[in-house]
Amino acid sequence: MNAPESHPERSSGKQAGMQTMRGWLRHLHDTGRLACARPGVALEYELAAIAKRLGGEQAVLFPSPGGHPMPVVSGLVASRAWIAEAMGVTPARLLERYLNAAEHPLPWREIADAPAQQVCVDAVDIRTLLPVPTHSEHDSGPYITAGLVIARNPQTGRQNVSINRIQVDSARRMALLILPRHLHAFFQAAESRGEPLPVAVVIGVDLLTLLASQAVVPIDHDELEIAGALQGAPLEVVKCLTSEVRVPAHAEIVIEGRLLPGVRESEGPFGEFPKYYSPRDDREVIEIDCVTHRRDPVYHTIVPAEIEHLLLGAIPREATILAHLKRSFPEVLDVHLSAGGVSRYHLYVQLRKRGEGQPKNVICAAFGAHYDIKHVYVVDDDVDIHVPEQVEWAVATRFQADRDLVLVAGAQGSILDPSTDNGIGAKLGFDATRPTQYAEHQFTRVRIPGEDSVDLQQALQPADPSIIERLFGHP
Ligand code: MN
User: How far is the CA of 227 from the centre of ligand 1 (A)?
Assistant: First the structure.
């Protein structure tokens, strides 16, 4: 696979025509990063299994999955470099660019004729209209996993965007998980008056809009405005046919409906981001009013807990955590939520340490940055925090447990971490930095001059057969 590291010459995804999902897919195809499955791959398990195996390498297009006329795609992002590419920056500037967009949102622009409304379907059976895959072994059935749920605050009219898992098991009703955040607050306000909350579930948007939907910003900060800032131009939106909700005008599919007051139905189990199942429970329900879509729409699914899912969560969180830490510690250079820590639980912090003790203060601040953070590793600026082996090396050689460990018992953690007591658990911090003062070379990392800069194209050539024969021809 030949993923370009970055395209610094490109100043934004807009210029490259990547502000739609199909524009991005076209770009992936043209650069050899879109695999195509044989037609008719099964929607139950087989599609997700193939996408999972290709995760981190290629996106995949599935023509007529399960015999359904609508194709499915998965794996719109395989690495941080792909995200940086869509943003038009180098990977090193990715978090800075994201934070800048989150802090300087761009109001969207409403248009009348939207591709997302080229076709309108009223008499919907969602189970057959869309090719919704079943992903994991013990899932209750098919799930929409890449649906942006968009709603308006009934009090202020400001919109919110979130990705919620949505179970598809009846014709016009879908139960979903709503965590106690912004959408939840909007629905509570409506439900307390006995009213439904109009929502749209948008499937098939570009990579930057997906990333924007995961921004960690306060209530009434419209994530679609962050999408516009990331794209470098106002996002084009269109009004839903049955409500006041505005949705991305170039989306592939829009499900319009209402969250029903006083209604809860069985949802789950479902394999979630920590690679464990979230149990069945009674949850909120959307009743569908209509579905609009583009001509020849493409359905997007995200395989839960795999690289696409993890990266979409990691980048916005890293950006927020980095800003949080830098406010108190300008010496913090970079942060990374490692994939092994499900891009939520393990935080690596790169620090230009100014004095003894400082890493422990950084650890304590990191615990406060997000309740999901469970283990924090602080390392020096000679450690690449995007290479887990290097962080492990720092722990192996610069850390002593009796001296460098920070332990906090009984703190708030992730309720999806099955080792916690219903979300209550321990926090652990590792100061894996070297002392600021040390004897000559005691903590100097071994390096070979030229190891990073040597030009292998210049240094190597095809082996001369006569040399091989002379040296190794007579074992
Ligand atoms: Mn929000």
Answer: 13
Distance between CA atoms of residues 279 and 4, nearest Å: 40
Q: What's the CA gap between 192 and 180, in Å, rounded?
A: 15
Instruction: Give distance in angstroms: CA of 403 to centre of ligand 1.
Output: 40
CB 250 within 8 A of CB 227: no
Q: Give me ligand 1 centre to Cα 212, in Å.
A: 10
13 contact partners, CB below 8 Å, separation of at least 6: 19, 86, 87, 88, 206, 207, 208, 230, 231, 232
Phi, psi torsion values for 114, nearest 5 degrees: -110, 135
pLDDT at 475: 81
Q: Sign of torsion, CA 228 285 371 348? A: negative
pLDDT (average), residues 238-265: 98
233: nearest Cα among 118, 25, 88: 88
CA atoms of 466 and 266, how far apart (whole Å): 73
Ligand 1 centre and the CA of 247: distance in Å?
15
CA angle 227, 314, 421 (to 5 degrees): 130
Confidence of residue 116 (pLDDT cuts 50, 70, 90): very high
Mean pLDDT within 229-242: 97
CA distance 277 to 286: 22
The alpha carbon of 432 and the centre of ligand 1 are apart by a number of angstroms equal to 35
* Cα of 152 from ligand 1 centre, angstroms: 11
From the CA of 220, how far away is ligand 1's center (Å)?
7
Q: Could you tell me if 339 and 310 are in contact, meaning their C-beta atoms sit under 8 angstroms apart? A: yes
CA of 182 to the centre of ligand 1 (A): 5
Q: What is the DSSP letter of 368?
A: H
Residue 124's pLDDT band (cuts 50, 70, 90): confident
**Residue 19: what pLDDT?**
87
Tracing tokens 């696979």 back to the chain, one arrives at 1
The band of 123, judged by pLDDT with boundaries at 50, 70 and 90, is confident
Distance in Å from the first CA to the final CA of the chain: 37
Task: Please provide the average confidence, as pLDDT, over all residues in the chain.
Answer: 95
- 151 CA to centre of ligand 1 in angstroms: 10
pLDDT higher than 70, residue 2: no
Output the CA 221–ligand 1 centroid distance in Å.
6
Q: How many whole angstroms separate alpha carbon 233 and alpha carbon 9?
A: 18
At residue 7, the pLDDT reads: 39
CA of 226 to the centre of ligand 1 (A): 11
Distance 214 CA to ligand 1 centre (A): 8
Judging by beta carbons within 10 Å of its beta carbon (0-12, 13-18, 19+), is residue 140 exposed, middle or buried? Answer: middle
Q: Does 41 score more than 70 pLDDT?
A: yes
**What span, in angstroms and rounded, lies between the C-alpha atoms of 154 and 219?**
12
